[in-house]
Specification:
Blueprint: H1 3-9, H2 15-18, E1 24-31, E2 40-45, H3 71-81, E3 87-92, H4 101-110, E4 114-119, H5 124-130, E5 136-140, H6 149-152, H7 157-172, E6 176-182, H8 189-202, E7 206-214, E8 219-221, H9 225-232, E9 237-241
Parallel strand pairs: 2-3, 3-4, 4-5, 5-6, 6-7, 7-9
Antiparallel strand pairs: 1-2, 7-8
Helix pairs in contact: 8-9
The structure holds iron/sulfur cluster.
Iron/sulfur cluster is lined by residues 48, 50-52, 55, 57, 61, 92-94, 120.
Amino acid sequence: MSKANYLKTLIITETVANNLGLNVGGITPFTTIDFPGHLAAVLFCQGCPWRCRYCHNPHLLPMDVSGQHTWADILSWLETRKGLLEGIVLSGGEPLVQRHLVSSVTQLREMGYAVALHTSGVSPKRFKEVLPLIDWVGLDIKAPFDEYNAITAGGAISGDHAKEVLEALLASGKPYELRCTLDPVFFTPERATKMANQLATLGAKHLIVQECRDNEHRHSKPVSEAIRVAFEQVLPNVQYRS
Ligand code: SF4
């Protein structure tokens, strides 16, 4: 069976099987850029409790639907990828809302895969449970922690959760990347300074600033010089992605 045909067979909804593992709404079969140093596949988890204005995966947000792929089929497919892939990236949506995250990551590790987690930090409890099994973390930083709700619509608690996740991540010594999609409506130089100071106080040394894609006009909004200066005056390593 060709790879294309095999992937088509994965587009099946089977609630029972999904309940036994991750609820996966999409797959990128091969990537070299989402897990540093690893040839990997990306599993996009279905469901996220937050509603960031710039979210580019709105189809992955509903929490109460089954994803496109059963966990059993994904494991079968990953059996065929052994020796070709080195790692699995869990992205979303939000992997931390998956009930079976720890057991699913354990299964992936038992198959010999390294595992990367892309998260916004919605659940410190589940993050701490799964972190010992994770090889690399990409953590989204949305805003100064006390202003998270303006971006996430997840309530004042959303910033507290993200802060607690960052603290646990930094304490773990695991390799990680912090990245911020810069909402040009929200961010002023003052807010950039405030956020950079909060990150630096916790011990973060770098930040990757991603330009915010304009959903309406389909282009990125460049980060202003004033905001670049604000970040770079506080954090020793700031990089930019368009
Ligand atoms: S946390 Fe991520 S997946 Fe959830 S709404 Fe925000 S950008 Fe979208």
